[in-house]
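hey
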């Protein structure tokens, strides 16, 4: 966390791996620094963050009011770094960077060019704003080496890009069921010596 004691994280209503990544990240770093999560809507993302004990603020007004409230919160709270996630969070962080004069770190969870697949209008507006914001972030974090390499190929500064893998909370006791019975219940015709290979991902065209 660049030696800071106070950080603010900006995120929308992310789901899937991005949500898990942000929750694990904040649950961990909140033990050592004063960190607050700012969400731009109330929902599953913010509710689960609060259940995990993450200090969470909901700012679901218009852009100008949200920026004003964030600027006041950052200055009064003495926050030293902004960590943004998602197009809206990245754009807000970009605007705040010039006003609050603090560094911005942006985590890239997916290929920005595919985030609005099948929605050309959203890609034109939000995709362009996101690209503008990412180019002005002080540091970019890819959630894998392939994401880091993708960002470098897209022309982002290599020395300012890092890979940080999604964390796994091993303190949670796994609920282990009988593997063969579970897989057969899903409709798979398996034997004791069958080798099963798979990947967990959202059922979404981007994936």
């Amino acid at each position: 966390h660049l030696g800071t004691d106070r950080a603010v994280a900006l995120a929308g209503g992310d789901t899937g791996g991005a949500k898990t990544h942000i929750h694990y990240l904040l649950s961990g770093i909140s033990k050592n620094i004063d960190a607050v999560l700012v969400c731009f809507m109330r929902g599953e993302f913010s509710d689960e963050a609060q259940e995990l004990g993450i200090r969470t603020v909901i700012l679901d007004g218009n852009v100008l009011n949200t920026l004003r409230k964030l600027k006041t919160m950052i200055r009064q709270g003495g926050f030293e770094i902004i960590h943004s996630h998602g197009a809206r969070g990245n754009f807000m962080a970009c605007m705040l960077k010039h006003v609050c004069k603090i560094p911005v770190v942006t985590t890239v969870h997916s290929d920005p060019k595919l985030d609005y697949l099948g929605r050309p209008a959203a890609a034109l507006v939000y995709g362009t704003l996101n690209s503008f914001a990412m180019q002005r972030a002080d540091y970019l974090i890819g959630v894998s080496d392939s994401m880091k390499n993708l960002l470098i190929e897209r022309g982002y500064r290599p020395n300012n890009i890092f890979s940080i893998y999604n964390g796994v909370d091993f303190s949670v006791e796994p609920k282990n069921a009988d593997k063969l019975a579970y897989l057969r219940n899903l409709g798979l015709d398996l034997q004791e010596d069958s080798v099963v290979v798979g990947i967990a991902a959202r059922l979404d065209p981007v994936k």
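The mean pLDDT is 87. The helical segments are 16-29, 44-51, 63-77, 86-100, 120-135, 145-153, 179-185.
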